[in-house]
Amino acid sequence: MQKSIRPTEALRPERWLEHLNRHLPIARAGLNREGVHQVRVSAARLETYLRLAARRSLRDDLRWLRERASAVRDLDVLLERELPAPFAEWLVGERLVARAGLIEALESPRLRALLEGWRWVPELAREDAAERRERLAVRAERRAHRALDPKSGADAFHAVRRALRRLRYADEWLGRDVDALKALQESLGLLNDVSVARRLACECPCASQLAEFLAAADRDLERRVARARLELARHYRRKEKV
Amino acid sequence: MELYLIRHAEAEERAPSGRDEARALTPRGRREVARAARGLERLGVEFDQLLHSPLLRAMETADLLSKLVAGETRVASELARDPSTELFARCTGLRVGLVGHEPWMSELAAWLVVGERAYASSFAFKKGAVAKLEGELAPGAMRLAAFWPPSALAELGRD
Using a CB-CB distance cutoff of 8 angstroms, which residues of chain A are in contact with residue B63? Predict the structure, then answer.
């Protein structure tokens, strides 16, 4: 999806709007898992566009759509793993509920109104976007410093992950290089996957049978937090040097 | 519940695309809403939910009111057509703001207060005007608690 953008060119939302529109029917049909994922990522990118435009309208609507898609996507990712049978069975049921929630959203008047509203969102002056991108960078850095405190746990890293996601998408909108942010985000994404698995295992009615799974998840989480801390520190050290 | 009916502020005569839906607020319209938002804030107004029509001028008005929103901002097509009970179903808070257009804001006010849309002309909304209704969200079941013209809100919101 990367496209070079001339430095003076205004930012226009059409590309990701078309991407969203293209994947809505795929997500609705449920023929492949990618459709849901693409709805989620395009909604997140459009949310960032609105942040760069300092627009509040449509942002909560996009978040609502993204959360409905995320509920399905998180379960899809987890179900790709080898899991204890009772947990996997329960997750399949949970996925059906999440999918029903997504379908309801995809068929809702709210989604139609959201798409209608997007038709009129104007282009965005590049300088304004670049200025607001700096605010996202400051916020991400603040959260990163908090996460680097040895006393902070997985929650602090989730906050960084969200802030870095916005920063990465902001840089994408501005046509900047995102390789470093993408790599960092992937590492934090893996940490999130373990957290999601752990949380769902705790919520599962069969949690008492999952002691071994939960212990392994705790160990994994600890490892991933340590790794994420290292990568985050490296990323910001490198930035300081630059 | 408290229901705030808000008409979008002054918008450009014609959008570059020529589409009515794409008409943006003028600089003056933006200033007026910013002042009105400060005025409403001074009156202690806060929204659990702010619904707006999908037309650009209503979205931009909602953007400028966003500091008054404690909960969710939501787009609703029902605000860009004749008022209907479907709109009521979208209102989930106890203090809800609706940003929309004429003649539908007037019709909605008349319907909710008097029970008849035919009285809409008694509730004419200037651009940027805000009406506060109280009571049960049903035709004829609400009371008009306040009706602020944009000039009054701008005065309240002056620095």
Answer: 54-57
Cβ distance A116 to B54 less than 8 Å, yes or no, reads yes
| Contact list, B54 vs chain A (CB under 8 Å) | 113-114, 116-117, 119-120
Across the interface, of B21, B59, B77, the residue whose CB is closest to A112 is B77
Successive 10-residue mean pLDDT values, chain B, 159 residues: 98 94 97 95 96 98 97 97 95 97 98 96 95 98 96 87
Strands B130-135 and B142-148, bridge-based pairing: antiparallel
pLDDT band with cut points at 50, 70 and 90 for residue A237: confident
Cα distance between residue B65 and residue B2, in whole Å: 16
What are the domain boundaries of chain A? Answer: 13-124, 125-242
3-state secondary structure at position B19: coil
pLDDT in tens, A13-27: 999 999 999 999 999
Residue B25 C-alpha from the chain's centroid: 14
Place of tokens 């605010």: A135
Nearest-angstrom CA–CA distance, B49 and B66: 10
Interface residue ranges in chain B relative to chain A, Cβ cutoff 8 Å: 19, 21-22, 24, 52, 54-56, 59-60, 62-63, 66, 69, 72-78, 86
Domains of chain B: 2-156 (3.40.50.1240)
Contact B25, B72 (CB under 8 A): no
Q: Place A56 in a pLDDT band, splitting at 50, 70 and 90.
A: very high
Confidence of residue A152 (pLDDT cuts 50, 70, 90): confident
In whole angstroms, what is the distance from residue B40 CA to residue B127 CA? 16
One-letter amino acid at A56 equals: R
pLDDT digits (tens, 9 = 90+) for A121-151: 999 999 999 999 999 999 999 999 999 998 8
Q: Which residues of chain B lie closer than 8 angstroms to A120, CB-CB?
A: 19, 21-22, 54-56, 59
Instruction: Note whether ipTM > 0.90 here.
Output: yes
Q: Given B19, B54, B86, which is nearest A117 (Cβ)?
A: B54
Q: How many CB atoms lie within 10 A of CB B126?
A: 13
In this complex, the residue of A57, A109, A112 whose CB is nearest that of residue B59 is A57
**Residue A8: per-residue pLDDT:** 63
How many residues in chain B? 159
CB-based contact B73 A120, cutoff 8 Å: no
